[in-house]
Amino acid sequence: STTPTILAIESSCDDTSAAVVVSGAVLSNVTASQAIHEAYGGVVPEHASRAHQRNIVPTVAVALQRAGVTAEDIDAVAFTRGPGLIGSLMVGVSFAKAFALARGIPLIEVDHMQAHVLAHFAEDPQPEFPFLCLTVSGGHTQLVLVHSALHQEIIGRTLDDAAGEAFDKSGKLLGLTYPAGPEIDRRAQRGQPSIAFARPDPGGLDFSFSGLKTSILYTLQKKVKEDPDFVAQHLDDICASIQHSIVSILLQKLQLAAEATGLTRVALAGGVSANSDLRLGLEALGQERGWTTFIPRLEYCTDNAAMIGVTARFKYAAGLFAEQDVAPAARF
Ligand code: KG4
Ligand code: ZN
């Protein structure tokens, strides 16, 4: 059919997500998160794949039910092929293959990073092509020149840690639970960015966060030597300072990329776009520069299957289908 009903599966990291998408609308988007990783200070791949294995069937069942459809109504199955944790991806890929085989319907493979960018097409307002997108997640930091849905050019990337990792690793230093991004964000609202950290710049449109991380570590070690209670007493200011540094780096590169490409449609994607300073900072910068800015709703910023379904819609229309022998790709 020309307006296919697509079941989409996302299982690249620690969230099991299923969505039902038809042309122009997300009918359901259901995500089961895995609390187990909090206790370990990071995602434990072995735990993640086991949890996906438990969650996948119930998550799909809820997604179908909320969309008001049954398995018989589905015209194609989309899944995240990569990048991600291989054991996690394997669960989603295997489920999608089995579903497609049982129903005799086509399979559509989706690149997780491409999908983060296309999350902007889950609902209005949708950016016109071409546009510039800063994709910031726990695993990736990319500046993408989006020529069209399926022609995305990466014009800048991180050379070491991702922006989300910079938040999470700094949080770990402070004894915060994983993932630390949201708590740093909450605390930063109550603090002042009073501590300056070094921000080594690799130049051009590329990012580097490992130097900032080292600077945070050494600065705090020095402060704690002078005052053992420093971290406990100044936690909100420390969080505000860390957040200010990371967000400043992101916005500075985004501004460079806008100048280099001449684009004035500027978008955010990925889990870190939930960050309140980044959202406000982009809006302020956009007003100053005359940009039209796009920030998806939170539900579509963090890992979700709706973005996989939306990407699959473009691939379905282009006749791009996967074979039954397709394998997940940890690095895409
Ligand atoms: O896109 P995402 O859900 O998963 C990946 O594909 O990585 O991004 C997760 C990342 C984590 O590093 C988390 O700490 C960060 O997004 N994050 C935030 C906020 N909410 C989530 N970072 C800063 N501020 C937030 N409010
Ligand atoms: Zn992601």
TrEMBL record:
Its EC number is 2.3.1.234. Keywords: Acyltransferase, Cytoplasm, Iron, Metal-binding, Transferase, tRNA processing. One of its GO terms (biological process) is tRNA threonylcarbamoyladenosine modification. Fe cation binds at H112, H116, D303. The keyword tRNA processing applies. HAMAP family: TsaD. This is tRNA N6-adenosine threonylcarbamoyltransferase. It comes from Neolewinella lacunae. The lineage of its organism: Bacteria, Pseudomonadati, Bacteroidota, Saprospiria, Saprospirales.
